[in-house]
């Protein structure tokens, strides 16, 4: 196999045309085989095989800086830079990351996980290079989905005006996770139909540059080219208007054409945008037919495309079903998605209520601000968003929603530890930043029954901004519903109190059972609402507590445990001994949720051990 001999960009440069095409075929088979076993982002990587090979043919990513946007599509890059043998550990605990990670390789220029920042980061690198008088190339590989984010336009605006030599490669596949939406998507679609102009320009330039007379004709024909361009490119090129030299669109599955275009872009002295159109899932029938399903996929059978382990009911699914039921009762309810309708369980809502469903693309800040406008005018907007992506709308949460006390409902999916996507995707910060916002109510269902109750309560009873946060996946052994109570004692005990919220309450209850077998009586208190955290809600549940452990899957600084302890002290109920069990003050790596809970001491065994140690110290 050719792939087995590839460890560096120089190895790819040594390949002839036939070998390069064979390498692309091998890479596709390699990706399908490995991801079918580990799970991962398949469709996006199948779509960039030729593009990534061409990048490595023209550039040296150990010296040149290749900045990925989001990073879903970095598997081919990793396989070409000495990491193909690690793919059996892809997205596993202490294994190969599914995203670019500079600690893994010098070929990974920058960490990636959230969308729309690559142009800004790349421009920063280009400016640093120029200031240091160094000589390397800087590339930003972004997608048309990421272009819906406002940060992309901020970066393009500054980069185009800067005149810094840099290359933005726009991978245009018509998809983010769900199909792309908006004016930018329509503009790119128009550009994709303009290949006639691109082919004419290429042949015209090549023919005339072969002689001195031809070169003069070429220079004299500038006005003719402008006329041709305005007639063949509808409304002209948006990117050239911003100061970029526009090249494309180029067939993203023609490695020879890509290599030629990138070589040409490399020779330019200023910002260049290379527009590449690709097919997400290319080369694997099931991924081409269902790119959304194979965007991030669990282990699957290659022959049928079926998952090896069927997924069960999930909080996301229960949320979507409940919201759809509520929308039948109240026509003011609207749903908002940031390119994640399927992932957040909104597909049925979108189908049944298309006029009340709004997919704004990858633009979470815009989604929050738009929801504020809808709420101000009498709608009940429900924004379903992953916890880690809601971070991008924090200013709008404060300024546009909370300042006016508007009733916007935030369905915060993937709260807590999410598993294999690692540091950039864990929802370990929302309990802190949501609780900071004046007037915000934060509800934490621990079961499907509570999910249904709390979503209805958030929509029908709460008057200001409200978040319902819930994890990825399904429920545990706890299946009850605590109704409107802010705090509930699930188990009585005299020796200590274990306090938790969300699905971690299952670990708290199991830890109490382990402790009971050792003669230790532990009270288990479930917080159903973590903001506002008020004295009257907790004083009865925690009365008499002298030793307390607070269990939560968020970072420690500003966590619920710290706020709870401060409140108890203010009430004169401060425990003699307090243990905070959480994610600490560092970013949590990838791994299964069970593995991470165990490593962090958040599972029943870790909690029971911490309680024993606390009692021993007392």
Please outline what is shown here.
The chain has 618 residues and is α/β, with parallel strands linked by helices. The strands form 3 sheets. The protein has a 7-stranded mixed sheet, with helices on both faces. It has a 5-stranded parallel sheet with strand order 1-2-3-5-4, sandwiched between helices. It has a 5-stranded mixed sheet with strand order 12-14-13-16-17, with helices on both faces.
Structural class: alpha/beta
Helix content: 40-55%
Instruction: Write down the overall geometry.
Output: globular
> Approximately what portion of the residues adopt beta-strand conformation?
5-15%
- Say how many strands there are: 17
Q: List segments where confidence is low: pLDDT < 50 over at least 5 consecutive residues.
A: 176-182, 224-236
Radius of gyration over all CA atoms, rounded: 27 Å
Sheet having the most strands: 7 strands, mixed
Number of helices: 26
Topology:
Elements: H1 9-13, H2 17-38, H3 43-46, H4 49-58, E1 65-68, H5 75-83, H6 118-131, E2 138-143, H7 150-162, E3 166-172, H8 183-192, H9 195-208, H10 212-220, H11 222-232, H12 238-241, E4 245-251, H13 255-266, E5 271-277, H14 285-289, H15 315-329, E6 333-337, H16 347-352, E7 357-359, H17 364-376, E8 380-386, H18 387-390, H19 394-401, E9 409-413, H20 430-435, E10 441-443, H21 448-460, E11 466-469, E12 487-491, E13 496-500, H22 505-517, E14 522-527, E15 529-531, H23 535-538, E16 547-551, H24 560-570, E17 577-581, H25 593-600, H26 604-617
Parallel strand pairs: 1-2, 2-3, 3-5, 4-5, 6-7, 6-8, 8-9, 9-11, 10-11, 13-14, 13-16, 16-17
Antiparallel strand pairs: 10-15, 12-14
Helix pairs in contact: 4-13, 6-7, 9-10, 15-21, 17-19, 22-26
